[in-house]
Amino acid sequence: MSGNTLEEMFETYLEQARNTPFTGWNFEYLTKTGRMVEAPVKWNYYNVVFPYLLRAEAMLDMGTGGGEILSGFVPLPPSTYATEQYKPNVTVARERLEPLGVKVFEIEEEKEPPFNTNLPFDDEFFDLIISRHEAYYPRELMRVLKPEGTFITQQVGSIGVINLKQFLTEKAETVSNWNLYSAVEELKSARFKILEQQEDIQFYRFYDVGAIAYFMKAIPWIIEDFRIDKYKDRFWELHLQIQEREFYDTPLHRFIIVAQKGSTV
C-alpha cells in the first residue's frame, strides 16, 4: 500500500468514526462486518438469567441501554421495568421496550460512587433484578428486592482495554480493584448469599483503526474528555501497527454473580 493510500485510508476511517452515530448499546456498525470481534467468555448471560426470569413476577433491568439485551428475553415477567441514566438512550429504550409492556424510568446520573442509591421503586418490589455492565448499590438492592429475591449482574472488570487506554494517553494507569473477588465481598457485606460466580479475561480484536476510534467514542468515560482528534497522532501509530500486524487486541475483563437477598441490613 502506497504512503498516500495509507494516509487516505486513515483519514477515511477516522471520518467515518466521527460521523457514524452510536445509539443505545449497539455495536453492530462494527460487529456485522467483523471489524471488531469480542472473544466469548465462559458463560452465556441469557442462559444465566433465563431460569430466574421464568419464576419472576416483577423484574428490573438496571442500565438497560437501548433495551437491546432485555428485549431478547421475551416473553418477560408480567411486571417488568428498566432504568437508564444516559439520556440519549432513554428514547431508544422506550421505543424498543414499551411495546413489550416494559416501563422505562429515566434516572439521574450520580457523578460519584455509590451509584444507583435511590431507585424509584417501593420496598420489596422485585423478585429479580439484573444489571449488565451497570453500577449498583447493594443496600439499595436489598431494599427493593423481595425476601429471597435474586440479583444477577455481569460486570466489566478493571483491566478491560487497559493497554489501549495506556497507549492512547501515553500514561501508566492505576488499575482499580474491581473484580469478582471485590464485588463478591461487597455483596456479602450487604448480607447477600452468593449462588453463582464466574470471572473470565478474554480480548477484543480490532481489524482497523476506525473500529478502535468508534469503539472509544462509544465509551468516552474510559478516557476523560475523549475526542478522536485529540488522540489523532496516537491513532496514526495504531493504524501503522495494524497495517503491519493485521489486528490489535485489548483485554476484555468480565465477571458474573448471582446473589440472593438474605436478612435485611
CATH architecture: 3-Layer(aba) Sandwich
Biggest sheet strand line-up: 1-7-8-6-5-2-3-4
CATH class: Alpha Beta
- Helix count from the secondary structure assignment: 9
> How much β-strand is present in the residues?
15-25%
Gyration radius from CA atoms, angstroms? 20 Å
Order of helices and strands: HHEHEEHEEHEHHEHHE
Provide the helix percentage.
Answer: 25-40%
Shape: globular
CATH topology-level fold name: Rossmann fold
CATH superfamily: Vaccinia Virus protein VP39
The overall average pLDDT, rounded, is 94
Number of strands: 8
Secondary structural class: alpha/beta
Distance between the termini: 64 Å
Largest sheet: 8 strands, mixed
Can you tell me the residue ranges where pLDDT is under 50 for at least 5 consecutive residues?
none
Instruction: Give the total of domains.
Output: 1
